[in-house]
Design a protein that fits this description.
- The complex is a heterodimer of chains A (245) and B (227).
- Chain A has helices spanning 11-43, 57-84, 87-119, 127-148, 152-184, 198-230, 235-238, 241-244.
- With 245 residues, chain A is mainly alpha-helical.
- The longest helix of chain A has 33 residues, at 11-43.
- Chain A has eight helices and no strands.
- Chain A is 78% helix and 0% strand.
- With 227 residues, chain B is mainly alpha-helical.
- Chain B has one domain.
- The chains are: A mainly alpha (245), B mainly alpha (227).
- Chain A binds chain B through residues 134, 137-138, 140-141, 144-145, 148-149, 154, 157-158, 161-162, 165-166, 169, 172-173, 176-177, 179-180, 183, and chain B through 153, 157-158, 161-163, 167, 170-171, 173-175, 177-178, 181-182, 185, 188-189, 202, 206, 217, 220-221, 224-225, 227.
């Protein structure tokens, strides 16, 4: 029996599938969040160097990882949409951008909260902080460009091109910022991930998984709204039970 | 009929854009005056201590150059877009990338080159030593074409949009950060007694990289905006 791999690449079928998947992702994300934060705040021991302050990394590190990863996913979907001209890929890229920007912002915010007691400053011009800030700018540029073009097709294609150019530029920016930083000052406090306590690792990975599932749930919900908005003049939308009532 | 080779075409586009720019000399001068003004505002803002000014001169000049190149980017395609020339260019049998490269080169000659020529005078205002000034000129000479080329992508994407100017800066400025870092880094290296070669080589690499890819990407962006 031949499987149709592209069955769910059409908004018509994907809309229903996303609707069925969202509760599962949302529920497992909530459970993992509670579990991860419990391990992180109650079970994991205090760090002998950083005391209780280090616990913010249980939110900071997953948010940073996801902010970078989501940009790549977004650029990937944008490229798919540009090359194969599929409607759903462009919608997915648009749906991912706000979540990615949110994670970049959370990462910067929690980084500042951690930096104040640790470094004695809310902000240092560290290579990682600076490139995270630039990543946030890239997300905002993508969202702004998409929002200011009225024609959805042109908006999709223009912002897709921007996302691809941005993803090519991200490594260049990262290394330039890194070299710029090392020229100015020595390396700042480094968190050694290898000698971490088991409970700390468990908490971090649990929260990371929770953030991941949360991102999927939110993106699916957002893409459903985008499908409803874009396809509002089609018959299949008007025949949906939630639209008719 | 004249035979039009690739370089002939390039020269033709550059000459056409330069002639058009010379007919509207005020536009060129405004960019230059903006550059001079932004640079002159800094001593007023941070105080006249020469030691501090000497230290920040390269950064100030580079940031001012970045901002004033943003100012003129909006005009890169908009006039041709409004009078339909751009459409004719896209219908032409010649490669759109080469036409775009010609427009980028002309844009740099009109808005980038005057800044490079003006920079020594402003550098002297900040009491920059001669050696650092020389490196600053070289870094600007390598860097400003990259700004024009990256900016052209943004200009093509925001073609004909409302509020295009501000949006353009939002899109292009983050992408220009490496140019800024290597440009100011070269001057800083010289003033701390190191060699500027590594920074200038990286800047040159960026220039070559941009020269190869940005005309093609800009051509794609124009196709998206014009369809």
């Amino acid at each position: 029996m031949a499987i149709n791999w592209f069955k769910y690449s059409a908004p018509t079928t994907f809309y229903g599938l996303a609707g069925k998947l969202i509760p599962w992702f949302a529920a497992s994300s909530a459970i993992l969040f509670v579990a991860g934060l419990y391990i992180g705040f109650a079970v994991a021991p205090a760090d002998y160097q950083q005391g209780e302050f280090y616990r913010i990394i249980f939110i900071h590190v997953p948010a940073s990882i996801l902010s970078m990863f989501l940009y790549l996913v977004m650029a990937g979907y944008a490229a798919l949409g540009l090359i194969f001209n599929t409607r759903l890929s462009a919608m997915m890229a648009t749906a991912i951008a706000p979540t990615g920007a949110l994670f970049a912002f959370i990462s910067l915010w929690t980084g500042a909260l951690w930096g104040k007691p640790m470094w004695g400053a809310w902000w240092v011009w560290d290579a990682r902080l600076t490139s995270e800030l630039i990543l946030l700018f890239l997300y905002l540029g993508f969202i702004a460009l998409h929002a200011s073009i009225d024609d959805p097709r042109r908006a999709d294609r223009a912002s897709a091109l921007l996302a691809i150019v941005g993803s090519v530029n991200v490594p260049i920016i990262y290394f330039s910022v890194k070299w710029w930083n090392t020229l100015h000052q020595g390396s700042t406090i480094k968190f050694s991930g290898t000698s971490m306590h088991v409970a700390m690792q468990q908490a971090m990975f649990t929260v990371l998984a929770a953030c991941w599932l949360y991102a999927i749930a939110v993106v699916l919900a957002r893409v459903r709204s985008i499908i409803l908005e874009r396809e509002r003049n089609t018959t299949w939308i008007n025949e949906l039970p939630e639209v008719r009532s | 009929m004249k035979k039009s080779s690739l370089f002939g075409l390039l020269a033709l586009v550059i000459r056409r854009d330069l002639v058009l720019a010379m007919r509207r000399r005020a536009d060129v001068l405004t960019t230059l005056i903006f550059f001079v003004m932004v640079v002159s505002l800094f001593p007023l803002g941070v105080g006249p201590e020469m030691d501090m000014l000497r230290k920040m001169a390269a950064g100030v000049l580079w940031v001012a150059a970045l901002l004033s190149s943003m100012l003129s980017l909006g005009r890169l395609f908009s006039a041709d877009y409004l009078d339909g020339t751009l459409e004719q260019m896209m219908l032409a049998p010649q490669s759109l990338s080469v036409l775009v490269l010609g427009k980028m080169a002309a844009h740099w000659m009109v808005s980038g080159l005057p800044l490079v020529l003006m920079a020594p005078v402003l550098g002297l205002q900040f009491d920059m030593p001669a050696e650092a000034l020389g490196v600053l000129i070289i870094s600007l000479l390598f860097g400003t074409p990259v700004l024009s080329m990256i900016g052209a992508i943004g200009a093509a994407l925001t073609l004909g949009l409302r509020g295009g100017g501000v949006l353009l800066s939002l899109l292009v400025l983050p992408l220009c950060i490496p140019v800024l870092i290597f440009g100011t880094g070269a001057v800083e290296a010289v003033s701390t007694g190191l060699s500027a070669t590594s920074h200038l080589s990286l800047l040159g690499a960026l220039l070559v990289f941009a020269l190869v890819f940005t005309p093609w990407v800009t051509a794609q962006a124009l196709r998206i905006s014009m369809e």
